[in-house]
Amino acid sequence: LKMSWFWLHLPLCLLTATCLCHSIKAPTPSSQQSFKTGLFNFYHSLILADGKETTIHLLKDIPKRYYFVLEEGRVLAPFSITVTPCDVPIEWSILVYKSPPGKAAPGDHDTQEISKSQKASSLVSTIFNYKGNSVETYMGMSSHSALYLLEFLSTERDTHITVYLTSDTTSGHLYPELPADPRIDVIGIGHTTVTLAWKHSPSVLQHRESIQYCLLVNEKHNYKSLCAAETAIRSSGMKLPPTLALSLSPYLLEPQQVMILSNSELSIINKVSSGEVRQVCMGTKNTYTVPNLSPSTQYYFDVFIVNLLTNASAAYTGTFARTLEEPEPKVTELKDGKVMHVVLDGKKQKFYSLQYQARHKKIHFTFQLCRGQIRVHIMRNGKTVASENLSGLRYFSLKGKLLDTYSVQLRSTEESNSSVKVLASPHFHKPLFPLLPESLKIKSFSKLRTCRSVTIAWLGTQEESKYCVYRKRIEEDQIWRELQSADSCSGPESRHKSEKVLCKYFYDLNLQRAVTTDTIKGLEAGTLYLFDVYLFGPSGIPVRYNSKVVKTRKKC
User: What are the Fibronectin type-III domain coordinates in residue numbering (predicted)?
Assistant: First the structure.
């Protein structure tokens, strides 16, 4: 090393609480290499590794320092340092220590009273400093007689960063390369979708198998690095997958996470207090349409190019867009005593608006949920009077003035189809819907089940009504589809005549005894059957009980 022993160790003395300079013997030229190795072992925690990404944890207001000396052999050698803040803005700088001209004798420092502080200040200079939370890269030329010191400081809170030092600038980069124009273009905006496009990374063209694009969508702000995004999501109280780059590997999702895999794209939706955070990795495609967004909402979009082999990433310049407002739903007029069947497509038409003008002071609304999940919102002259999720048969009795205008808004709360029957009438004493029991479940008795018969029971009401039982033979793989497609408002008119078992009337003024049973005979052994019960009120409007699947005994 072409620098005196004192000047080589001056930075190390500054980095430790007690200067150890005078307690170590000056190395002879023949022992410089072993001495250098000993220094490495002693001060290994402060040396920044060359060619490796290092994660550094910073405590608030406590600076952290790392130094490095590049390989000898050339008078000037190129090097680069990339620092990635993973949370709050930080301050960081690069200082260089250069040896003085000439060479002092090993023992000169023992006899000469030269001011060390004056000598240090004349040979130490700051060549770079930065404050912020962007990913910054410094590229420079190193002198073999120079020692470099990096200082990092966080003044907001404890945080962590990643630092990558390399002196090999010819054999490729750890981080994927961004295009000359790293902006993300918004090429389409809808009510629930945003379409994005970006220019290909040169790394994709060179290493297609090990490179992929990952998109982050959130409602808060853009992120300047992938580790900053992951840190922000973790701070909201959830556990993330290792990284987006590794998200194609199986792992256990947290309760707040939803994973969607379709068309070779993996989407992860995190439910956080500030809205959803979506992560989508789409391979090497450089266009993507983000689906299932909320209308009239601003979203922030970040694209990261990820190296699957090294797990390193680079961030495109983030963008944002606001989805279009939901169009006003078509208003349909409700007429007195007329039942309207409303079907909502959870993907295309999630809203339906009805209007009713009162001709009496007291109005009764009846809703029979047929399928799915629907929320109803009733307003009188623009003011909300009722709002809730529907279940089964629901009545609302409202009192107002003549010619009051009622608006009924129906909203599907799931993506599958939902449907509901709606009735508005001033005459509650003449209901069109039948009186319903406490439960629409059908019960089967396992002990009464035989190879050729099944016994079922269901609840009735205090009102005499007609009940019809239907049966249908099904296979194991049909159970889920049959139960999912069941519509409690549908009648038996679509059923085949051969499926009808019986019809009967019954009621009981004592609800504790309003139970009826029937034994269905003539069945096949070891066979699955789907049983349905339909209830008909005075108006003839049917209500379907929850379907019941029962299997006859195989051996008797």
Answer: 176-313, 434-542
